[in-house]
Amino acid sequence: MEIIKCPEFNYLTLYKSDVDISSKEFSSGRKSAVYIRDAISKASKCKICNGYIHKNSLTIDHITRKEDGGLGLIDNGQISHPYCNTTYKN
Ligand SMILES: [Zn+2]
């Protein structure tokens, strides 16, 4: 007996392939793909490691370090991960 037919596993669903390219409707998988594609293209990246950065977890890094005379001016600021801003760059 296939596990998918067992009552205790009724929460399982079968993966449905998304290969039908003749449909004029967006499948839910394709809707998600469009959203993710567009959202990622606009997502902010850490200027130190180039990784994606969440808006709730970012710091403003001095491009020229304060120890090297860098000032708190807009042109000397860049967004970065807290980790990147406080560890290996220094
Ligand atoms: Zn980073």
Question: How is this structure best summarized?
Answer:
The protein is an alpha+beta fold. It is built from two helices and two strands.
Description:
With 90 residues, the chain is an alpha+beta fold. The chain folds into two domains: 1-17 and 26-42, no CATH class; 44-90. Helices cover 22% and strands 9% of the residues. The protein has two helices and two strands; from the N terminus they run αββα. It has helices spanning 28-42, 82-86; strands at 59-62, 77-80. The chain has a two-stranded antiparallel sheet with strand order 1-2. The protein starts with 27 loop residues before the first helix and ends with a helix. The structure holds zinc ion. The site of zinc ion has 7 residues, from loops.
Question: What attributes does this structure have?
Answer:
alpha+beta, binds zinc ion, 2 strands, 90 residues
Topology (SSEs and partners):
Blueprint (H helix, E strand, L loop, with lengths): L27 H15 L16 E4 L14 E4 L1 H5 L4
Antiparallel strand pairs: 1-2
Bound molecules: zinc ion.
Zinc ion (ZN) binds next to loops.
The assigned structural class equals alpha+beta
SSE series: HEEH
Largest sheet: 2 strands, antiparallel
Count all strands and give the number: 2
In DSSP terms (H or I, runs of 4 or more residues), the helix count works out at 2
What is the number of independent domains?
2
